[in-house]
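Exercise 7b. Backbone tokens:
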């Protein structure tokens, strides 16, 4: 059976169309892979630039760290610290006539080389003046305290304020004897020690 010229032309056109269809399907998968790889490259390039910028700024951050390093209190590895931080907060509250009615201490959590403990004051009461002076007293106490949440509402008599807050306390721990035996020897930097109770 022989094909006419017309049938040969139609067959050739069908084969070319089929070939382009197969190439299109294959190219679509390759094109999508190329797009994904290009996006991964962009993300990696952005990450690399950010990390290079951080490395360039390292001396500045080291200088800032050295300026505040000695301000962070250092406690023995096995000593509970909640009474110390509660004392700092209660002292600032009593000096400024702010009544702390309900409070709760959460456990400590490691944050890099330091530790952090949250004191949740579920209810406090006082005037606006007492609150402002209390916050200023915490700030000027020379310790690492951070007020991250605070809610304020008027009391029923509309003369005083009530509310709640969460106070975060940052500190460091001395290395335990086991950790210092396995760690390489370093010259310790002088650190701020919390005052001892008499």
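Sequence design result:
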């Amino acid at each position: 059976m022989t094909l006419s010229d017309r049938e040969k032309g139609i067959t050739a056109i069908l084969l070319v169309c089929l070939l382009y269809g197969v190439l299109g399907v294959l190219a679509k998968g390759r094109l999508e892979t190329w797009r994904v790889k290009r996006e991964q490259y962009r993300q990696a390039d952005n990450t690399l630039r950010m990390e290079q910028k951080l490395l360039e700024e390292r001396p500045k951050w080291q200088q800032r760290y050295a300026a505040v390093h000695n301000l962070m209190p250092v406690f023995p590895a096995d000593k509970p610290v909640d009474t110390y931080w509660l004392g700092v907060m209660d002292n600032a509250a009593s000096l400024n006539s702010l009544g702390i009615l309900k409070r709760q201490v959460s456990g400590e959590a490691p944050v890099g080389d330091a530790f952090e403990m949250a004191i949740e004051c579920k209810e406090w009461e006082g005037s606006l003046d007492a609150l402002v002076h209390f916050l200023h007293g915490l700030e000027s106490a020379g310790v690492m305290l951070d007020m991250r949440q605070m809610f304020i509402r008027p009391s029923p008599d509309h003369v005083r304020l009530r509310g709640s807050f969460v106070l975060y306390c940052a500190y460091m721990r001395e290395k335990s004897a086991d950790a210092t035996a396995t760690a390489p020897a370093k010259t310790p930097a002088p650190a701020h020690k919390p005052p001892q109770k008499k």
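Instructor comment: The CA atoms of residues 121 and 170 lie 17 Å apart. The chain is about 50% helix and 25% strand.
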